[in-house]
Amino acid sequence: MNVIRVLNNLFRFNRTNWKAVTLCFLAATVFWFFNALNKNYATNVRFPLQFEFDAHKYVSAKPLPHDVYINVNGNGWDLLRKNLGLKLPPLVIQLERPSETKKIVGSTLPPLLASQVGNLKINHIVTDTLYLAIEPKDSMMVKIVIDPRAVTYKNGYGRISPIVVLPDSVQVEGPRSALQHLADSLVIKLSEKKLSADFREQIEPTATGDGAIQRKPEVVEVMFEVGEVIQVQHPVKLELINIPMASRIMMENDSVPCLVQIPKSRKDDFDQLTIGVRAVIDLKEARSGGRKMLPAILGLPSYASLVRTDSIRLKLY
Questions:
Q1: If you write DSSP's letter for every residue of the chain in order, what string do you get?
Q2: 52-54-56-58 Cα dihedral, nearest 10 degrees
Q3: 8 phi and psi, to 5 degrees?
C-alpha cells in the first residue's frame, strides 16, 4: 500500500514533481548523447570536391563532380562535425594533365584524400567513378546577325532603316570541341510586337546553347528606325544570267511585278531610283524543260524591303 501511495503522489498533477521528472529525463538524455559521441562509428560521409588545374589553358566541357561519398570510421564528435558541415573544407584533387584525365576510379582516391579527412579513417570510397570532361580552352570571333522576321508593327508602320548591331561581333571562349561546332555567325531572332517607334535595346546573344561557352561582351545593342511606311507595286525587268550554250528559252513575261515597302517620306526618291532595280534569274543549274523560278530582286535602296514578288514560268530547250 505504501508503494502505491508513493507512485500515486509522484504522478499526481503537481508542478514541482513534473519539473523534477523532466530535469531527470533531460539529464539522462544528455549523458547518453555525450557518451555515445565518445564511441567510434563507421558511416558514409559526403565530402565536397575541388579540382585544381590551369584554368587559363583548360576549361570543363561539362559540370565537374561536386562531391564524393566516403565510408569512414571515426569518433562520434568528428563524424557529427562532418555531417553538420562544420569545418568541412573541400577535398582537393590536383590534375596535372586535365585534358587526358577522363575519369578517376574511386579506389584510387584514398591515397589522395587520406591527409585531408582529418582524424577520420577511410574504409572505402562509396562513389564508384568520377567522370571528367576537361578540354583545352579556345576562342573565336562570331558575327552577330539579326533575324527581324518575327517583328510586327502597328498598321501603317514598319522598319525604315537598316538594323545596326554594336558591336557586330562577339568573342566566344570555351571548350575547343564546342567551338568547332559553332557557325561563323550567330543569329538572334527579334520577337518584338506592334512597334510604332524606333527600336533600341541591349540583347544577350544566348543562342550558342552551351553553358560552358562564354561571350565577350555578354550583350549587344540592336537599333533601327521605325516610321510610317507605304507599299508600292513596281514592275521590274527580268535579266537571265548563266544561260547554257546552244539553249533556247521561252518566257511568258519579260518583267515581274514586285511589291516593295518604303518609308512614306521617301516615295519621290524611290521613284527616281527604280531604274537600277533588277530581277535576276540564274540558269547555271537549270535543265531542259519547263519550270517556275523565283527571281532575285537586286538593286533596291537600303531603306526599301521586298514584300512579295511573283515566280516566272519559263521553258529551256
A1: -HHHHHHHHHHSS-HHHHHHHHHHHHHHHHHHHHHHHTSEEEEEEEEEEEEE--TTTEEESSPPP-EEEEEEEEEHHHHHHHHTTTT-PPEEEE-SSGGG--EEEGGGSHHHHGGGSTT-EEEEESS-EEE--EEEEEEEEEEEEEE-TT--B-TTEEE-S--EEESSEEEEEEEHHHHHTS-SEEEEE----SB-S-EEEEE---TT--TT-EEESS-EEEEE-EEEEEEEEEEEEEEEESPPTT--EEES-SEEEEEEEEEGGGHHHHHHHGGG-EEEEE-TT--SEEEEEPPEEE---TT-EEEEE--EEEEE-
A2: -90
A3: -65, -40
For residue 315, give every residue at least 6 positions away whose Cβ sits within 8 Å of its Cβ, in sequence order, or none. 249, 250, 251, 289, 290, 291
Return the pLDDT at 183.
Answer: 84
- Tell the residue number behind the cell numbers 530535469, with chain if given: 23
96-126 pLDDT per residue, tens: 899 998 988 888 888 777 776 667 777 788 8
Taking alpha carbons only, the member of 172, 92, 98, 105 closest to residue 134 is 98
- pLDDT over 70 percentage in the chain: 78
Average pLDDT, the chain: 79
Question: At 245, is the pLDDT very low, low, confident or very high (cuts 50, 70, 90)?
Answer: confident
- Name residues whose C-beta falls within 8 Å of residue 258's C-beta, 6 or more positions apart in sequence: 233, 234, 235, 236, 277, 279, 297, 306, 308, 309
Look at residues 232, 207, 205, 201 and name the one whose alpha carbon lies nearest to residue 219. 205
Cell triple for 195: 512597334
pLDDT for 168: 92
Amino acid identity at 201: E
Q: Please, what sign has the CA dihedral across residues 297, 298, 300, 305?
A: positive
